[in-house]
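Researcher: Here's my situation. A collaborator sent me these components and asked whether they could plausibly form a single complex. I don't have experimental data yet, so a predicted model of the whole assembly would be a useful starting point for our discussion.
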Amino acid sequence: MLGLLYKDYIAVKGKYFLMVLFGQFLLLTAIRLTVVDEVVDHILPPMVMMMLCCLAAVLPFVFELSLMKADEGRKQKQYFLSLPVSRRQYVASKYIFLAIAFYIIQSVATFEFLMCQVNMKSEEMSAKLSTFQMLVPIFIAICMLICALELPFFVGMGVKKGMVAKEGVIFIVLFLGVAYIMFGDLSVVEEASIMSLVDYFMKHPEISMSVQVLFPIVSILSYYISYLISARFFEGKEWEDE
Amino acid sequence: MNKKLTKKRLLIYLAFSFALVWVPMIIYFATGGKYDNPMMNLILAYSMLCPSIAVFLTRKITKEGIPLIGKDSLQLGINLKNKRWIWFLLGFVAPVIYWDLGQLVFMAIFPETYNPAGFDAVGVPRIALFLLPIFGWVTGIVGSIGALGEEVGWRTYLYPKLEELMGPMGSVVVGGIIWGVWHYPAIYMGHNFGTDYWGEPWSGFFVFTLNCVTMGALLYLVTKKTGSVWPAAIMHAVNNSGARALGLCLNLDVLTGIWAEKPVMMFLSDMFVHVMGVIAIVMLVKMKKEEN
């Protein structure tokens, strides 16, 4: 299992991604410790921080595709199936690898927000920052949920067919979005913003707490169920060139 | 077993883990830094990573290698087979059990501290309060990197090395004392007990060290039983997340005299940690006998 994880780490050029994450953290540290007082209590740093964290949370999607592509190219999959690991373990390694990526991103985000809080003087801004910080695990949970939905397609159908299925789903979502823009109530969209969401959570702590609890639990459960489905698909799969 | 070499490795590890934490804290304090500053949160978060940084540095210098799983490793693997899952579950549940039982005992000794109105002060409807322990677990896992940083250092390196030198009992007691002493600069600045309490800072040092000995035993037991550092990291993180439902209805302001002193309060509310810690020590000794 450890060997498979290491192979995946090499396949996605994990060393460079870690260096980028660490470099970003160091850069933010340097900026945070040197910025002037007027900037410290501005809403911009927490927002930039959250955007960076959300961008980082999308990385596992890139990994997901590179992992599957790397395995399908050069018939690596057949090679690994000849190794003393079961098909189930092979599928598990993909899920574990992506889960580790999510965990690392969440951990870096935790430290980046702590860094952002340093020197912050206004209590209101500090409270807003905490709510921003709360949104990051929720966003990561959503990304994990999407991964849980995508992976069975990639594992069971291969990258090509999986991408077709993914594009089909994206097309349907886009179609629904366009339909909503044409016929739906646009005032809801006009009022929606990150700040209004932050304010809403600050006013309703019970909803904020429920969301913080439910999202990660639902996404972890879905991730596990997704693994079981993928493992079943993969175990029953017959290769065209076998 | 080469005891001299183990001792040498331990000393290198301790030098790193103490220097990496004590030096920045002393500099921060000496330059007028205060405990109630967000900078201190950052230093504390950084400190929690230092024991694992110290392990990496020590293993590199002493050429022990950095194995991730297996014996004498960082124990990052997860294996739920052979009823190990029970110990993983204990990692999740134990903090909620010992904290809330501790609060119950506290309320039984001092009934006047029971204040149900405290629930409403949080601003969360009472019906949502059952979410509090789950909230503790979720936030604990989400922010477990700090606890993992400490556990990799203490429970997978310090304690096993000490066990090699002085057996399980000595490992837990000496390891707990070292772990406690490592926290002293933070406690001196106000961590856990604040300032202006009776016997400051020595009473705080004593109570915290006692807590480290018993809590450390519990954490080491789950690490040994599962062969993984994760349950200890989760237990540590949930413990630190502080989401305790019963703690909300505890009004400590009504206490007077010695009972109002934070070290005394902590000692009393940690009673079940101590009880579970003593049970853990007995189990560790028994495990060692069975191994031999």
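Model: Some features of this prediction you could bring to your collaborator: The CA atoms of residues 71 and 77 of chain A lie 5 Å apart. Residues 2-235 of chain A form one domain.
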